[in-house]
Amino acid sequence: MRILVTGGAGFIGSNFIIYWLKKYPQDTIVNLDALTYAGNLENLKTIEKNPHYEFVHGNICDTQLVNKLASNTDTMVHFAAESHVDRSIIDAAPFIKTNVEGTYVLLEAARKNKILRFHHISTDEVFGALKLDSKEKFGDHTPYNPRSPYSASKAASDHIVRAYHTTYNLPITISNCSNNFGPFQFPEKFIPLAISNIIEGKKVPVYGDGLYVRDWLYVDDHCRAIDLILQKGEVGKTYLIGGLTEDISNIKIIKKILRIMGKDDNQIEYVKDRPGHDRRYAIDWSTIHKELGWSPNYNFDQALEETIDWYKHNSIWLKRIKSGTYTEYYQTQYGK
Ligand code: NAD
Ligand code: TDX
C-alpha cells in the first residue's frame, strides 16, 4: 500500500504512522502536515530515516500540492484537523478552513486520481451530548447534533465525505471515535494537561462541576481499529470506536492521576465552565466488534499509568512543546 496520511505529525496521526510501519514494513507512508502548533516532527523521530517514510511540509488546503501527492497514492488516511474544542470557541475560522475546506480539497484530489480508499477520521462529538444519568450511548443511527464550532466543522466534513461516496462513488470509510489518550498528545487536552501541570507543581483546572463524562480510548486501540477498517471495512460505511470506560467523570480521572502521581486533591482547581460544554459521551462500538472483530485491549487504569509514565520520561518533549505559543494560549484560556 502507498498511503497518504494527513496530519501525521499530530497526536493520533504520529501514533498511527509508527504503528503502521512496524506492522507493515513493506508499505510506504507519505505524511502531509502543515506543522501547526499541534504538529511535532519529534513524535516521528524513531521512523524519520525509514526509507518507506516521507514527510511533506504542506497544507491540505493547497490544491496543487494535494493533487500531486494524490497522483502517487492508493489510500488516504485523513487525520489533519484543528482538534481542540476550546480553541474553536476562541476562534472558529481555522476550524472551518482546515476541517471543512481542507477535507473538500482532499476529496476532490481523491476523486480525480481514482484513489482506492479515502478513510476519514472523525469524532463522537458530531452527535452532541447525552444526559448524565441515562444509559444511552451514541450508536450507528444517532442523528448529528454538533454543538461547538469544532464538532460542527467535523460534522460538515463527515457529510461531505459521505456525499462524495453517494454522488461520485468514491470508496470512502469513516470512523467516529471517542476521546483518545496516550503518548504524544498535546498538553492542551485534559489528560496530558493535568499530567504536565502536576509535573510542574501547578494546579489542575477542572471545568464547571467536573461531572462531565467522556468515553476514553487508548490511542493504540484506535490505530488497530483504523487498520481493520482499511483491511476489511465495508466501503461507504461509518464505524463507531470507543473505549472500555463506563461513565467515569472528569473529576474522578483527575483524582486517579493525582493519586498515581503521589499528590493530593488540593491540587484541583475548579475553573469557569466551557460554554456549551457537552455533558456526556458514550459509544456503542458493537458494530465494529461484530463485523470486524475489534474490541479495545487496554484497560483504562493500566493505560493511564503507562501514559503518566510516558510523560514523566519525556520531559524534554514536553518542555519543548510547551515553549512558544503554548504559554500565550494557556493564559488566554485559563488566565495567569
Ligand atoms: P492534533 O491536533 O494532535 O493533530 C492535528 C495535526 O494536523 C497536526 O499535526 C497539525 O499540524 C495538522 N494540521 C492541522 N491543520 C492542517 C492543515 N491545514 N494541513 C495539514 N496539516 C494540518 O489532533 P489529533 O488529536 O491527533 O486528532 C487527529 C484527528 O482525530 C482529528 O481529525 C480529530 O478531529 C480526530 N479525533 C481526535 C480525538 C482525540 O481525542 N484527540 C477524538 C476523536 C477524533
Ligand atoms: O483544562 C481542562 N479542564 C477540563 O475540565 C480541559 C482542557 C478539559 N476539561 C474537560 C472538558 C471535557 O469535559 O475535560 C473533558 C475533555 O476535554 P478535552 O480534552 O478538551 O476533550 P473534548 O472536548 O472531550 O474533545 C476531545 O475528544 C473528541 C478531543 O479534543 C477532540 O479532538 C475529539 O474529537
From TrEMBL:
Superkingdom of the source species: Bacteria
Query: What keywords sit in the KW lines?
Result: Lyase, NAD
Task: Cite the CDD domains for this sequence.
Answer: dTDP_GD_SDR_e (cd05246)
Record keyword Lyase present = yes
Gene3D superfamilies from the entry?
NAD(P)-binding Rossmann-like Domain, UDP-galactose 4-epimerase, domain 1
Q: Which GO terms describe its molecular function?
A: dTDP-glucose 4,6-dehydratase activity
Any single Pfam family the record assigns to this protein: GDP_Man_Dehyd
Which EC class does it fall in? Answer: lyase
Spell out the SUPFAM superfamilies in the cross-references: NAD(P)-binding Rossmann-fold domains
Tell me which InterPro entries the record gives. Answer: dTDP_Gluc_deHydtase, NAD(P)-bd_dom, NAD(P)-bd_dom_sf
Cofactor(s) demanded: NAD(+)
Q: What's the catalysed reaction?
A: dTDP-alpha-D-glucose = dTDP-4-dehydro-6-deoxy-alpha-D-glucose + H2O
Keyword hit for Ribosomal protein: no
GO BP of this protein: nucleotide-sugar metabolic process
Enzyme Commission identifier(s): 4.2.1.46
Q: Where is the NAD(P)-binding domain?
A: 4-307
**In which family does this protein belong, per the annotation?**
Belongs to the NAD(P)-dependent epimerase/dehydratase family. dTDP-glucose dehydratase subfamily.
Name of this chain's protein: dTDP-glucose 4,6-dehydratase
